[in-house]
């Protein structure tokens, strides 16, 4: 029961706190909204308190002229319209905001407040803008007279530059003088419009003066250089190039690739166009265009000089390239002369010679490309610089052909090398076989084991197979190599067998003689020695040697070490 009472009391307290919180929040929100209404009302009063009317009256008393009066009256009308309509609407909107704030409609309040605030900012901006315009009207004469003074200084500097270099302007002196007269008239026009308070015309006259003085300054500054380029520098460069072309033509250069005639016509067209424009004092981009033409002509001189260097490089490279071509041609001719013999000798098929055929085709195609390049060079359809690049590309192709030809020759030559190797190795194994026979015959042993004669027969047969292969027409190199390898292996096997027989027979006999002194030690020793002798006389020298060693090792345990060097691997 106590717990229920506590829960009930806690719930009541919580509800009371919640109600008080809501009341406090609403009261705070209402206070905040009313504060914002007060702020926006103060802002409205500040905008209304801007001394616009006083400024209008002040400007009206200081300025004269229909244009200025019209502008001032227009501003006055705009301001009266704002007070009569916009500010009254704002006042109504502020009253409505106050009512909404008391009603605690926060969302609606925020929307209305934003609208009022925007309207006030707009009006304040418009009024300040008109005030700035009015202030400018009171000082416009000083402003534009200051601008005109600077323009006059710039104009006098331009006139002085012209007078100091008058002889540089040639037939254009009268035209330039007319421009100066027009500018002088414009200065007079300025004095007229400023004295009559023609505000709109003042702006136009000053802008016209700025444009005319900027233009005449550019003309006076650039025209001497333009005339020098037109009348002296470019024509002299063209003449020098023409003479240089004639000189190089006598040396064998035609320079067709440079299209000099076309370029000269284009330069003449550009000069005529600029000259026509210059006569009416239109120099826009003219100096830039003429400098570009001059740089182009200077570039032609450099290109021609480089041609001389490129020609030397081309002649040297071409000579070397031609020598390499002739070397490849000679090699291909020699190979083609031997192909029939090689086919017959080694049984080669057409497919076995595809590499050589491909090299020949690539060589023929390369020769065509080289001849085509030489024809173009003779006609000078291409510059020597570009011809050098093309020749270098052909050089790369020729190197590939040379490498492929070397590989093909190596493959063909390997057949001849294999044949020569086979003949040389035939002699070697025959000599080694004779050596084996002589060694066996030179030693006195009771019996030669049967395996020796089997190996001897196999070696002889293998050698005969080599001889048969070498006598065949055509020779099958793969089979020949197999025969040579087989014969060599068998002869070396026979050689090792011969060496082993002689070695084992010698030491078996020596150790038997040495072991005879121990026969009397026991019947087993005597019996085993007799057995070793029997093995020896049957030709089983290795078994005899091992048995003697075992007998001696039992009698004298250090015997194997004593004979270690002499009977290695036993």
* Average pLDDT reading: 76
As a percent range, the share of helical residues equals: over 70%
Q: Please count the helical segments.
A: 15
Rg, Å, rounded: 60 Å
Q: Judging from the principal axes of the Cα atoms, what is the shape?
A: elongated
Our measurement of the CA-to-CA distance between the termini, rounded to an integer number of angstroms, reads 116 Å
Task: Report the β-strand fraction as a percent range.
Answer: under 5%
Provide the number of structural domains.
4
**pLDDT < 50 stretches:** none
In words, what does this structure look like?
The chain has 4 domains: 111 residues; 120 residues, no CATH class; 105 residues; 120 residues, no CATH class. The protein is 86% helix and 0% strand. The protein contains 15 helices and no strands. α4 crosses α6 and α13 packs antiparallel against α14. The protein is elongated, with a radius of gyration of 60 Å.
What attributes characterize this protein structure?
single chain; 570 residues; 4 domains; 86% helix
Topology diagram in text:
Elements: H1 2-48, H2 52-62, H3 66-103, H4 106-164, H5 173-195, H6 199-250, H7 260-279, H8 286-346, H9 354-379, H10 384-442, H11 450-471, H12 477-515, H13 523-537, H14 541-555, H15 559-562
Structure, briefly:
With 570 residues, this protein is an all-alpha fold.
């Amino acid at each position: 029961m106590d717990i229920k009472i506590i829960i009930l009391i806690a719930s009541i307290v919580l509800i009371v706190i919640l109600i008080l919180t809501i009341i406090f929040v609403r009261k705070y929100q209402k206070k905040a909204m009313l504060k914002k209404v007060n702020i926006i009302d103060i802002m409205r009063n500040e905008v209304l308190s801007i001394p616009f009317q006083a400024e209008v009256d002040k400007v009206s008393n200081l300025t004269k002229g229909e244009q200025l009066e019209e502008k001032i009256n227009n501003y006055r009308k705009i301001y009266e319209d704002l007070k009569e309509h916009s500010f009254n609407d704002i006042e109504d909107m502020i009253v409505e905001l106050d009512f909404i704030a008391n009603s605690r409609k926060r969302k609606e309040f925020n929307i209305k407040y934003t609208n009022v605030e925007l309207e006030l900012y707009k009006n304040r901006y418009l009024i300040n803008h008109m005030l700035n315009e009015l202030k400018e009207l009171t000082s416009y004469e000083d402003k534009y007279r200051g601008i005109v003074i600077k323009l006059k200084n710039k104009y006098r500097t331009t006139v002085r530059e012209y007078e100091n270099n008058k002889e540089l302007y040639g037939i254009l002196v009268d035209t330039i003088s007319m421009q100066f007269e027009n500018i002088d008239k414009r200065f007079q026009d300025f004095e007229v419009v400023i004295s009559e308070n023609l505000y709109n015309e003042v702006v136009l006259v000053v802008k016209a003066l700025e444009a005319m003085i900027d233009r005449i300054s550019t003309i006076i500054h650039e025209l001497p250089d333009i005339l020098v380029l037109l009348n002296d520098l470019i024509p002299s460069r063209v003449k020098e190039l023409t003479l240089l072309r004639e000189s190089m033509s006598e040396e064998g250069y035609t320079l067709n690739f440079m299209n000099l005639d076309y370029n000269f016509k284009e330069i003449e067209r550009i000069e005529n166009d600029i000259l026509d424009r210059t006569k009416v004092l239109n120099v826009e981009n003219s100096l830039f265009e003429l400098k570009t033409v001059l740089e182009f002509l200077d570039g032609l001189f450099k290109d021609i000089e480089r041609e001389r260097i490129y020609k030397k490089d081309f002649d040297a490279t071409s000579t070397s390239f031609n020598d390499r071509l002739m070397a490849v041609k000679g090699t291909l001719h020699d190979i083609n002369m031997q192909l029939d013999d090689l086919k017959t000798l080694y049984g080669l098929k057409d497919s076995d010679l595809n590499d050589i055929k491909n090299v020949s085709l690539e060589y023929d195609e390369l020769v065509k490309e080289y001849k085509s390049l030489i024809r173009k060079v003779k006609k000078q359809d291409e510059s020597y610089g570009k011809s050098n690049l093309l020749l270098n590309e052909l050089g790369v192709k020729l190197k590939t052909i040379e490498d492929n030809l070397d590989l093909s020759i190596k493959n063909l030559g390997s057949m001849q090398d294999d044949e020569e190797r086979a003949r040389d190795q035939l002699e070697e194994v025959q000599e080694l076989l004779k050596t084996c026979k002589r060694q066996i015959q030179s030693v006195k042993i009771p019996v030669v084991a049967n395996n020796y004669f089997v190996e001897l027969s196999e070696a002889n047969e293998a050698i005969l197979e080599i001889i048969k292969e070498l006598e065949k027409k055509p020779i099958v190199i793969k089979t020949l190599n197999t025969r040579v390898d087989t014969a060599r292996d068998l002869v070396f096997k026979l050689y090792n067998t011969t060496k082993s027989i002689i070695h084992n027979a010698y030491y078996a006999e020596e150790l038997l003689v040495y072991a005879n002194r121990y026969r009397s030690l026991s019947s087993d020793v005597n019996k085993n020695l007799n057995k070793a002798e029997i093995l020896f006389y049957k030709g089983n020298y290795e078994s005899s040697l091992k048995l003697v060693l075992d007998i001696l090792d039992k009698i004298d345990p250090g015997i194997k070490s004593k004979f270690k060097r002499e009977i290695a691997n036993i």
